[in-house]
Amino acid sequence: MRSEERHQRLLTLARQQGRLEVAGVAADFGVAPETIRRDLSELERRGLVRRTHGGAYPVESAGFETNLAQRVTLHVESKRRIAAQGARLLGGAETVFIDEGYTPQLLATLLPTDRPLTLVTASLSTAAAVADSPHTTLLLGGRVRARTLATVGSWACAMLSGFVIDLAYLGSNGISRDCGLTTPDPVVADVKAKALEVSRRRVFMGHHGKFGASSFCRFAEVSDFETIVTDTGLSVAEAHRYSLLGPQVVRV
């Protein structure tokens, strides 16, 4: 098998499975682990995967986006820590926007229940997760994207336009100092941008693999956020570079 063919097969597998393990792939392909490591390094150089210890995972782009089923299996412990730290930033907020995605869904279940909150979300999964809580949950209308089980479109944006929200918890497919926060789908970007616009405070939550990545549609700048919450996979030096753009960066 030629290297370019291996690269394409590796990328396809990574996108289907959500993660690759060097040892397993090398055995399946009948090549040495060093060959797979070189292949993954080349794919990382092209911005298609991110290397991890013993493997790699795919980078989201205009042509590829993980679905919710994959997201609930990737970086789970990091996402739990990030969500817990995000919940600690609630402060005195009474109205809260919770973005689509697994980390925001985890955060929604960790918000305090000793006082009533109004939660606004486009995510069907998040709305279901907090349906039995004492909070009031408003689910934005619109078309449901099968990949993320979240609503998008003009109805969702129109509903958001009528709100003034104390705090928005937002995620993205990529965040970089040059390109800001990005996502592959324009209609998703529209909802995120509108939530950002109507919120007094904004917190970004995302694992370290999001950093340095960029997708098709920009919906925010790094400076739009008061706080960025990520995991310790983001180096101290890189966290400092992001903090120079305005937000506090918290690594957990």
Automatic annotation (TrEMBL):
This is Lactose phosphotransferase system repressor. It comes from Streptomyces roseus. Repressor of the lactose catabolism operon. Galactose-6-phosphate is the inducer. Pfam families: DeoRC, HTH_DeoR. PROSITE patterns: HTH_DEOR_2. It comes from the Bacteria. Keywords: Repressor, Transcription, Transcription regulation. GO terms for molecular function: DNA-binding transcription factor activity.
